[in-house]
Amino acid sequence: MPRDAAEPPLTRRGKLVRIAATLAMTLALGATSLWGTDDFFPFAPFKMYSHAHDPDGWANSTSLVLTDATGHSFPIGDNDTGFRRAELEGQLTRFREDPELLALVAEAYEDAHPGSPEIVAAEVLITSYELVDGERTGAERVEVAATWTEGDPQ
Q: Which uninterrupted H or E stretch holds 79?
């Protein structure tokens, strides 16, 4: 964009301030990219996006399965309760320590699906898939990380 002829040129002090600010931001970005945590975002990468999985190993997938009063079990997604999978994975330690917290997720599902049968149980499942060259081999393991059953004292 052409500069207006009436606009004075940038002073030496103005140039130095801009250069110093640019250097400071570049150094902060570099340092937090190497040593930062998610708390430093946007100056540090989110860990979940900053590295790749080993194409020859195991990959995990966390899911939440509800069981209604008719005995029907089904996995739920983000839109079923407003509780995202990333939040589930982030709170996994809390669910393991206090499975009663799953009752709140069941309640959120019931609130979002009026008229559906009552939810009587919930499980957090971690399914691990074996990968070879980035493709599933068919081998998998399922771990029940937390279980809540209505009326069951933990």
A: helix 78-81
Range 64-83 average pLDDT: 92
Nearest to 110 by CA among 120, 95, 124: 120
Does pTM surpass 0.70?
Answer: no
- Tokens at 80, concatenated: 């079923």
CA atoms within 13 A on the CB side of 96: 10
| H or E segment to which residue 105 belongs | helix 102-112
Mean predicted confidence (pLDDT) in 104-133: 94
